[in-house]
Amino acid sequence: MSDEVNSENNTPDTNSFYERPNVKMDTIRIGDGIPFGIEQVSNKELGIGGAYGAWGKSFSNANLPEFVASRMGRPLNETDQLELGDLGFVSRHHVPVLTQEENHELELEVGTRLIKDAAQSNGWEPSEVQGLLVGSSGPVTNDYLSEIAQRAGIPKDALKVSVHKACDGSVGALNLALNPELSQPGQLNIAEELQGKKVLVGGIEGLSRFIGMSQDKNALQLFGNGFGMIGLIPGKTIKFLVGKSMEVFDDEGLLKVRMVYPHSVKAIGKLVEVVQEGAFIRVAGLMHEPEDGSNISMAGLMGMVKLFVRSGVQAVTDVFGSYQKLMERLGTPEKKLAVAIVHHANYKINKLKEKQLLKEGISFPMPWLLKDFGNVSAASNMIAFLRQLPQIKPGDHVLFDGFGAGTYYDVLAVELGS
Q: For residue 27, what are the CA distances in angstroms to 37, 102, 179, 342?
């Protein structure tokens, strides 16, 4: 990972995502009008494309305290303000206070537009899509995925998988789409079902709405809205190599998140529940929830380091070891990972993970690519991948590293290009 936080490959040094030259801007006619920006990316050599973006007003580090004060009902003390630049973020996106109905309609419109643009980036019509997998930390409604799929024109019988594992949601979804070893007895083997089919995988996070019900000063500064979605044909444009899914429950409650999605909580020793209803599957992760009923409560930045780094390094180390063994079996021990697409929780966490991995003799590029979004939870890996996509070459091996509250870890290595 570069020591220069603001570095991006072949992208202008802009403070707002909306200022990028290839972003299509629009206003969604809800409330007083909600800014909406989306950028399409494709790599024809790989046969992979997608779209990503945000909605809501763009707040820089300079004008964010005013927004946070409006949510908290009091000004931020100087000691309360995070050094957001040092954490890798220079702006993020928020919506004003809206009614429940307005939030619902707004996020339906966002998700529908994303599906259409992501499909178009791959040269597909939505009616051709055979699988749709989306990670979301706090969906605006339990039927969100089904609703946006219907609006966008996804076939009724297409497999739809809604994944709720906090910031790990989109990588967890990608792992399910590619890794046949994740299937449990009595459950549909999603990877086998989707092999060779046209599939969209992404993350959609209305975090401005979600954290708006919290008084957590750190969460209000770190998180923002964002979405990203990629198109792939499992086994063809993206081929699974090795991977792992891991759960380590957050007993201490260092990052407490309210489950706004169904989870029985009663399944002792079972953190992840999988429920299938026809062509719809919900993957729900158990969370340590805030006692006061708010949506999120953070123990502080050092707590986040403690929560994610140790287990996260172990998950990556295990997968990297499996990757090396696979390359040896294939007779290509010299093959290296071209790049790692790591969840952008914050820059310091990722730098510490990199430092700990180096102690294990593990090194690969881990670029920081999301300075103009803030932490966008399950959307971050998809956005980072799309920003890196133009630099990836056919045959390159890429590591996806997802982690989120709960805590959940999904790490997988893949080969790109048909």
A: 9, 14, 39, 31
pLDDT tens figures, 228-250: 999 999 999 999 999 999 999 99
* Predicted local distance difference test score (pLDDT) of residue 184: 84
Question: Where do we find the tokens 């497999």?
Answer: 159
Question: Which tokens is 407 given?
Answer: 């805590």
Residues 165-185 pLDDT 10s: 999 999 999 999 999 999 988
d(CA 163, CA 305): 24
User: Can you tell me whether residue 23 is helix, strand or coil?
Assistant: coil
Residue 7: the pLDDT is 39
| Nearby residues of 78 by Cβ (< 8 Å), 6 or more positions away | none
Torsion of CA 211, 215, 216, 221, to 10 degrees: 60
Best CA proximity match to 284, nearest among 269, 304, 270: 270
From the list 227, 154, 166, the residue with the least C-alpha distance to 197 is: 154
The DSSP code sequence of 199-222 is EEEEEEE-HHHHHTT---HHHHHH
Give domain 17-416's CATH superfamily.
Thiolase/Chalcone synthase (3.40.47.10)
All residue ranges of the chain with pLDDT < 50 are 2-4, 6-13
Q: Would you call 34 exposed, middle or buried from its count of C-beta atoms within 10 A (0-12, 13-18, 19+)?
A: buried
Sequence length of the chain is 418
**Long-range residue pairs from 262-265, CB within 8 A, at least 24 positions apart, any chain:** 262/142, 263/164, 263/287
pLDDT at 299: 85
* Residue 11: predicted pLDDT: 41
